[in-house]
Amino acid sequence: MASSLTCTGMIWALVSLLSAAASCVGFFMPYWLLGSQMNKPVSFGTFWRCSYPIRDEERQATVMLEQCGRYASFQGIPSVEWQICTVVTGVGCGLLLLVALTALLGCCISELISRTIGRAAGGIQFLGEIPGS
């Protein structure tokens, strides 16, 4: 199995894959903000939330639903800022995965990654990391 990457390129491919995985895990986890509401611990991320208040029509009161779940729709995300964050972070994770998988293929296929493609991938990777900063 021939490679089109140097030793430095192999390390870059591995670190790229680890970075993309960490970014995607962080994107999907609901623990971006932690706090409490109605004396219960709550947390939420861009499109997941844990322990959130709902209206109980039987009791005519607001109760805490102590489970994790995603928002029912994109408009259910609490604010426009969080909606933008969801889109930008998701696009960034997608770019990181694209570069990481391309680099991984470059470890296995000879002549796949040239100097120009490597520089372009580095630029794309930089753009993908900006939302995670």
Automatic annotation (TrEMBL):
It is a multi-pass membrane protein. Keywords: Membrane, Signal, Transmembrane, Transmembrane helix. It is found in: Membrane. InterPro entries: LHFPL. The chain crosses the membrane at residues 12-34, 87-109. Pfam families: L_HMGIC_fpl. This is LHFPL tetraspan subfamily member 6. It comes from Sinocyclocheilus anshuiensis.
